[in-house]
Structures are given as structure tokens and as C-alpha cells.
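Duplicate of earlier report; Endo-1,4-beta-xylanase input re-posted below.
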Amino acid sequence: MVSFSILAAAVLAVVPGTFAAPSSYHETIGKQLQARQGGYYSYWSEGSGNFGCNQQGGGKYSCTWSGQKGGGFVAGTGFKPGGSRAVKYSGTYDAKGPGYLSLYGWTQNPLIEYYIIDSYDILAPGEPWTHKGNFTFEEGTYDLYTSQRVNKPSIEGTRTFTQFWSVRTEKRVGGTITTGKHYDAWNKAGMKLGNHNYMILATEGFSNGTLLPSGSSSITVS
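Output:
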């Protein structure tokens, strides 16, 4: 799939506000903000189209998007460092086309980009996915996958890295994501994480060939 990774950079000033898509890819690199309430907010985008996200404080953010071509965005509120915790969230998510509502994060040594997907319209993977099984617990049933990205943006610059996926079989918007349960299931499937960097409850939209995304979200993380 086309997964637009959030790139590492210095933390910028803490000013909740609207971030419209900048005119060039380089202007978007590393836009990461520390929310006033102690949460971690991150926003990254590239390409053309109408999309923007608003960090509202208190663990809440909202996004709208439409008509993206050759690009996409990822935005969300969460934690740095990430790791094993119960992430509670609520809100609305109405999406058409490729993209996800997910718990999204990174580890290093090894460099892993991971998704725990709760809702989506079209998954539209670009790279081949390898199915690694499934698991069920009190929060639901998830299918497990891995994939690889070659020479793509990451929190360590342009790198080749592995992606881990948990995809919920029954979509939902709101509830609790107990990340440690997914880490344990991945480990049992031979999917080894590294040292945790950040993780966010993310909205992502991206173009994939002729498939163009549109939608809106309003999410609060606790």
C-alpha cells in the first residue's frame, strides 16, 4: 500500500491550529507538535488536493480531505514514546477511498512502521502483504500481515523497512486499543518490534492510482 510515513524532526511551537497542505513536499517534512495537555501530535502531508488537520488540544483533532492526487497525509494525537498501553478513543470517521483510522507507530532497532487498523473504506495496498494469521481477544478479531517498503521516507530518513499490520475484521470507530495484546500476537507470529518511538491514533488518506480519497474525522484520544 502507499503508506505516507511521518518524518522525524525537531518539535515546533505549541500552537493549536489548522494545517493546510503546503505547496511542496519539503515544506511538510517533520511537522510534529507537542500538545499542551501532554499528548503528542503529529502531522505530515505531500501532494496536491484539499486536506488539512486541526489540533484542538485535550487529545482532540479533526481532519477533512478530498481530491488528493499523488500524495496523502497522516495526522493524529498520541504518545512519545509509544509502547504497551490501553489507548481509549472516541469520535467520528467518514471516509471514501484509500486510507485508515488506526493506531500508528514506529520502532527502531529494528526500524518498523506499524498499524492497528480499526476502520477504513479501501485498504488498497501497493506492496504485497503477507498474511501471518489472526487472533481474537475481548476487543475483537484482527488479521495480521507484514509488508516491506524499499527506499521510502521513515523516521530515520530514506530507508528500507518492514511494516506490521493488525486489521480489525469488524470495523469500529471508538473503543480501546490495548497495544500490548497486538505486540504479543505479532511476537508469536515472528514479527519482532524494536525500541518504541512515537505512536498516534491516526487518520490517513492517500491516492492510489485512480482511487482518490475524501472524508472527514474528529477524534479524541485519552
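The longest strand covers residues 60-79.

Merging into the original ticket.
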